[in-house]
Amino acid sequence: MTEEEKQKEVDIPESEEELREVPEEDNDEGTSENLEKALAEANDKYLRLYAEFENYKKFATKNKEDLLKYANENLMTGLLTVIDHLELALQHSSDSDNTESLAEGVELTLKEFKTVLEKHDLTEIDAMGKIFDPTVHHAMSHIESNEAEENTVLNVFRKGYMLKDRVIRAALVGVAKKTDNSENHSEVSDEN
Predict the structure, then answer these.
(1) CA atoms within 13 A on the CB side of 8
(2) 3-class SS at 14?
(3) Can you tell me the distance from the alpha carbon of 10 to that of 5, in angstroms, rounded to the nearest whole number?
(4) Were 13 and a residue from 18, 176, 179, 189 both cysteine, which residue would form a disulfide, CB within 3.0 to 4.6 Å?
(5) Which CATH superfamily hosts domain 123-192?
(6) Which of 64-68, 89-93, 141-145 has the least mean pLDDT?
(7) 6-52 tens-digit pLDDT
(8) How many angstroms separate the CA atoms of 99 and 135, rounded?
């Protein structure tokens, strides 16, 4: 191999100008690599920030929807005592025959009031005869009974209500409990 072929193969610079250009090219490559890395990092940060912002927007939208959906909850909770009083008045007025007109008026008022509340998605929790559910019922007492299934609601002390799909007041109930058979067994053994 001749000297020229070796220089072409290795690409050795022959003049001073070519020597000066070689470091500049290396420097440009290093700078472009650094710029590409910086650009990639900036792009990565941008994508992460964009994803975080999109998640925040979804979170804020859901919070706003929940706020609008349950905005009347405090109002509805306050009106429940009115329903309780009207129902109590109906109970007391039904005991006496002289107050039929009063009872009828209160009954119509209560019916209309409940209709208005139902239009605003307030619904009564149907508890009587249902299996006890701690998410919608609050047990006030256990009632011993052999006739009813265990954990069945036998008595409703105060009605419960839901606003859309949220319980705003649990029903106060009495729950069935099987009677103790130990007393029956002891009585049978005493007879023998």
Answers:
(1) 5
(2) coil
(3) 9
(4) 18
(5) Head domain of nucleotide exchange factor GrpE (2.30.22.10)
(6) 89-93
(7) 545 545 455 455 444 444 444 566 788 899 999 999 999 999 999 99
(8) 39
